[in-house]
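Thread: "does anyone have the structure for this chain?"

Original post by V.I.:
We have the sequence but no experimental structure in hand. Need at least a predicted one for the grant figures.
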Amino acid sequence: MLETWEENTVFQKVAIIVALVFFMVLPVSTVLEAFGIEFVTERVFAWWWLLTALFCLVARKYYWVIAILVGTPILMVFCGMFLAEAIGYYGEEFFGLDLYPLW
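Reply from O.Q.:
Generated one for you, tokens below.
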């Protein structure tokens, strides 16, 4: 079922690293968008999401494909609806940052 890191081929290791970087950039991008900074557009995320899923599919990492196809929309909803709003609200409450004119 699940192999150790050493049992994976180089192509599979690269697929896992690309997927992990994708999952790390998504929340960071959402936090920065709360401050009006957009360094990755939605179109780039859509292509990156599709290519990461295809890359993991070719590398035969089927659990990663499921995690990418199902987990990404869930993570986007969580980060977009809850994390960005919480940063906006608590930034204004505790630090006096008015982030809403940026939206």
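V.I.: this helps a lot. The CA atoms of residues 34 and 84 lie 5 Å apart.
O.Q.: and Residues 62-95 form the longest helix (34 residues).
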